[in-house]
Amino acid sequence: MALLFYIIGASGVGKDSLMQYARRTINGSQPLMFAHRYITRPPKEGDENHIYLSTKEFIQRRDSGALALHWESHDLYYGIGREIDLWLQAGCSVVVNGSRAHLPIALEQYPHLVPVLIEADPDIIRLRLETRGRETTDDIERRLQRKPEITDRSGGTIIIRNNGPLTQGGDALITLLTNYQATISTF
Fold first, then answer.
1. Tens-place pLDDT, residues 156-182
2. pTM
3. Which fold has domain 4-176?
4. How is the chain split into domains, by residue range?
5. CA 73: distance to chain centroid?
């Protein structure tokens, strides 16, 4: 059964880094696809590998049904393309960088969704946000205070703590992505 791994977590916990590490390491060796996000923010070096759309382009895609999932956050639009539905139908599991606030809607749309929450200690998050240099000090404080409730109706959100080296959290994510199906089929 193909699964949708829905990676969530606060800005600065390292979702993008862990997903990039997993994608590079797996490198097509598993029936697993990593979806790009469509975002109304131009890319910068060090950002996630996303596809930039103007607000008008994004709205056109959203309104035409070209996006499987979409949401707004921090004055930006985010979306995941319909290609994930084709990949799931073809029997490939899919990894997406999702939104905590959008999780209940995603769970309704995808019954085989596996929520994966990436967490890190506040001091580590602060350092990562300061290092990436995209937010002001006030923005960072607001992000550290923002803790939307994770509504879990899927039977269990899996938590990966990402306080250590990239390889530690990245290997935990790879283990989850490549072994989850085998684990659930034994119960």
1. 889 999 999 999 999 999 999 999 865
2. 0.87
3. Rossmann fold (3.40.50)
4. 4-176
5. 14
